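Repro case for the chain-ordering regression, as requested:
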Amino acid sequence: GNSVTQMEGPVTLSEEAFLTINCTYTATGYPSLFWYVQYPGEGLQLLLKATKADDKGSNKGFEATYRKETTSFHLEKGSVQVSDSAVYFCALRDGNTDKLIFGTGTRLQVFP
Amino acid sequence: KAGVTQTPRYLIKTRGQQVTLSCSPISGHRSVSWYQQTPGQGLQFLFEYFSETQRNKGNFPGRFSGRQFSNSRSEMNVSTLELGDSALYLCASSLVGLAANEKLFFGSGTQLSVL
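-- result from build under test --
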């Protein structure tokens, strides 16, 4: 079945460091891909999305490119801030069932 | 515009009891979906309701059920609680639902602890 695999956390970085959180997926067809972020004590918020191969989603300095050849959707940011500390979830929408399938989440901790 | 509201924020129950969680979507949103979040499994899809009808269902036992009212508010019920049901339960709302790839708006969740 369809699935999403994320790198395990926590990822610990200093402020202004470069961030990569890896995400790979297994799916039939052409799923839509998403990154959601969950700040402490809050629900999830959509960070960015891409709906077809080679699309790049971007928001708040974060970017991710839909790579069909490597079945990946890695999240990147050039310079992280303390306020980026949160849990990041990669997800796909199953094109057959419309269900959202999430990865297990990666906790990012940014220190000043 | 008010966000997605989930009540209660915290619940403590014992094994064998049942529990009902509530979710009020953003005004105008007709789709409500529910998710279970645990440290080991991440987020898992429970079900989606649209216009009072269940449109999609995840792989959970029949002890997990839900419904949606005419005002789009949704409730989720878990009967015969087990220790493994301890989790953060999140609901999300959107205008027309998961099939449209539209943005989901999540509530802050209900933290259920089963003792």
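Ordering looks correct now. Chain A touches chain B through 22 residues (CB under 8 Å).
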